[in-house]
């Protein structure tokens, strides 16, 4: 057991060592500019929590360490046997974990997984483990997974205490986010949302098992409740994958006596359940949502391939190769956006951010060209039309800019009329701004 723990730790260290030379990117950047809290213990607490940054190498080292501990706990929690060892190695390098294993700001998605595995491995740490899991909105429902952990049913009695403490804060966070980001379609619950949830489930389970496309901004289901909402309800291949996956999981639960594979499937389903776009208060598709759920799925995969060394080697090689080259996207904020455009060229939001980067360095014509590229992908995107309008007017092309302003006014997102109306009114009064 000790030797295998050492192997997992060494594997993590050697594999992610190069990230110590990476800079900050995306949400890391504003956090790195915040002053350090006092006293020091509070600063370090916020560093661990990812609210503050201490320094590039320290922050990246902590990310490596926390991911490594999570992998070790996966091995111990699921039995410290051959299957859980392979599962831990698969989880270590699975590209689906990249926003927790490499990205510093992804730490709020790591802590719930670490807390849950801690409780599973060492049940008497239930108070600390559930506190870590439920402190973050992404882990608020995670303790429900352990309700069906064989032999540990008593853990369920601790859940009401933590939900009583954390649910009010969770609902406040949801309400605040809903006011700013929800469209009318997000607030509606109707039967067609089952199509949406099923295809989202199919997309995530496919990506967790076979890393066909890793990127920070996916084009799949983009503008789901806005200009591209009609595409959300098409019966694409991921819908049928989702149908097959759901039927297979339910059949396994019904036909096979409850075991750790059943539990691993439950872990995946509960973990990914709140991100299936049935009620959307989050980004349509984001790989960080997969960190916690993939723990259970890797145990299921390891159980399926444990008797075949060729399959074990094949999956490890596939995951490690993809992850090794993809993690370089996190070198800095510039490369993250460039990789997003390269890996997901149909993502209008990736092109939009690329335009913002060019605008910030006064490359105005390049920025306008990139916003136009984004517009070609999503012609009715309010944000893009407003930015093209403002960019043209700030560059001296007032008449053309006003045409785009008039077009933007036609495509105000449903549910965002008040906010969009204020932006348009300011633009008409020459109070120009760019929308991120």
The gist of it:
The protein is mostly helical. It has 21 helices and no strands.
Task: Describe, in plain words, how this protein is organized in 3D.
The protein is mostly helical. The N and C termini lie far apart (49 Å). The longest helix has 23 residues. It is built from 21 helices and no strands. 64% of the residues lie in helices and 0% in strands. The protein folds into two domains: 333 residues, no CATH class; 82 residues, Tetratricopeptide repeat domain (Serine Threonine Protein Phosphatase 5, Tetratricopeptide repeat, Alpha Horseshoe).
Question: What's the total helix number?
Answer: 21
Secondary structure class reads mainly alpha
Mean pLDDT equals: 90
Report, as a whole number of angstroms, the end-to-end distance.
49 Å
- How many beta-strand segments? 0
Explain the layout of strands and helices.
Elements: H1 2-16, H2 28-32, H3 40-49, H4 56-77, H5 82-93, H6 98-101, H7 107-121, H8 126-134, H9 159-181, H10 184-187, H11 193-209, H12 237-255, H13 260-273, H14 291-305, H15 309-326, H16 333-343, H17 348-360, H18 364-377, H19 382-394, H20 398-410, H21 417-428
Helix pairs in contact: 1-4, 1-5, 4-5, 4-7, 5-14, 5-15, 7-8, 7-14, 11-12, 13-14, 16-17, 17-18, 18-19, 19-20, 20-21
Keywords:
436 residues; mainly alpha; Serine Threonine Protein Phosphatase 5, Tetratricopeptide repeat; 21 helices; 64% helix
């Amino acid at each position: 057991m000790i030797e295998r723990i050492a192997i997992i730790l060494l594997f993590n260290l050697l594999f992610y060592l190069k990230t110590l030379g990476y800079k900050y990117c995306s949400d890391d950047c504003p956090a790195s500019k915040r002053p350090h809290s006092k006293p020091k213990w509070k600063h370090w607490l916020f560093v661990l929590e990812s609210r503050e940054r201490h320094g590039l190498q320290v922050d990246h080292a902590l990310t490596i360490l926390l991911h490594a501990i999570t992998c070790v706990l996966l091995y111990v929690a699921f039995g410290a046997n051959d299957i859980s060892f392979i599962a831990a190695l698969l989880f270590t390098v699975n590209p689906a974990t990249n926003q927790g294993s490499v990205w510093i700001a992804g730490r709020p998605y790591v802590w719930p997984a670490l807390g849950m595995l801690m409780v599973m491995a060492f049940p008497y740490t239930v108070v600390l483990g559930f506190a870590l899991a439920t402190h973050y909105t992404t882990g608020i429902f995670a303790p429900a997974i352990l309700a069906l952990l064989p032999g540990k049913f008593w853990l369920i009695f601790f859940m009401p205490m933590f939900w009583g403490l954390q649910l009010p804060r969770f609902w406040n966070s949801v309400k605040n986010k809903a006011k700013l980001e929800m469209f009318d379609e997000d607030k509606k619950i109707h039967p067609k949302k089952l199509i949406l949830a099923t295809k989202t489930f199919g997309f995530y389970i496919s990506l967790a098992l076979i890393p066909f496309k890793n990127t920070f901004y996916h084009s799949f289901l983009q503008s789901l409740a806005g200009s591209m909402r009609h595409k959300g309800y098409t019966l694409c291949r991921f819908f049928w994958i989702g149908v097959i996956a759901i039927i297979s999981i339910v059949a396994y639960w019904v036909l096979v006596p409850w075991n750790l594979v059943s539990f691993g499937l439950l872990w995946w389903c509960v973990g990914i359940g709140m991100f299936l776009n049935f009620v959307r208060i989050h980004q349509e598709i984001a790989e960080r949502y997969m960190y916690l759920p993939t723990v259970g799925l890797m145990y299921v995969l390891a159980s399926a391939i444990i008797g075949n060394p060729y399959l074990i080697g094949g999956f490890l090689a596939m995951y490690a190769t993809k992850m090794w080259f993809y993690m370089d996207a996190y070198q800095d904020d510039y490369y993250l956006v460039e990789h997003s455009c390269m890996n997901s060229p149909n993502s209008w939001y990736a092109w939009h951010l690329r335009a913002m980067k060019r605008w910030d360095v006064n490359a105005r014509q390049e920025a306008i060209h990139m916003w136009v590229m984004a517009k070609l992908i999503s012609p009715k995107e309010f944000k893009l039309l407003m930015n093209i309008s403002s960019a043209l007017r700030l560059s001296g092309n007032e008449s053309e800019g006003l045409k785009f302003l008039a077009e933007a006014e036609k495509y105000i997102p449903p549910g965002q009329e008040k906010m969009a109306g204020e932006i348009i009114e300011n633009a008409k009064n020459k109070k120009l701004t760019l929308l991120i």
